[in-house]
Design a protein that fits this description.
Order of helices and strands: EEEEEEEEEEE
Number of helices: 0
Largest sheet: 7 strands, mixed
Structural class: mainly beta
Shape: globular
Number of strands: 11
Radius of gyration: 14 Å
Distance between the termini: 40 Å
């Protein structure tokens, strides 16, 4: 059974930092791009970071660019999102997800419909 489990969220202060982790089990995802999405209350789920299957290319949404790093450890079937200089607008549930295309040549999917597997999410709340 495929399972993604996110961890590392919590209540943080503005200006702080966090590291989200996503542990995948049930199969290897080393051949698939992976991404972090987030969903704030009453807003649509949006992609904030992605990494291609090799780990050689990454994407960041403008909202977190310059203060975030996505990485993966294929040997451990893990993906991470490090964020610093946290802002109240970073408050959301953060989800990791696995792209539905193996060895995607164009990097990663950009919409929720292009991801097959999702974690249950981890809440990140940033107080001002």
């Amino acid at each position: 059974q495929v399972q993604l489990v996110e961890s590392g969220g919590g209540l943080l202060q503005a200006g702080g930092s966090l590291r989200l982790s996503c542990a995948a089990s049930g199969r290897s995802f080393s051949s698939y791009a992976m991404a972090w999405f987030r969903q704030a209350p009453e807003k649509e789920r949006e992609i904030v970071a992605a990494i291609d299957w090799s780990g050689g290319m990454t994407y960041y949404a403008d909202s977190i660019k310059g203060r975030s790093t996505i990485s993966r450890d294929n040997a451990k079937n893990m993906v991470y999102l490090q964020m610093s200089s946290l802002k109240p607008e970073d408050t959301a549930v953060y989800y990791c997800a696995v792209d539905h295309i193996k060895y995607r040549s164009a990097g990663w999917g950009t919409t929720v419909y292009e991801y097959d597997y999702w974690g249950q999410g981890t809440q990140v709340t940033v107080s001002s």
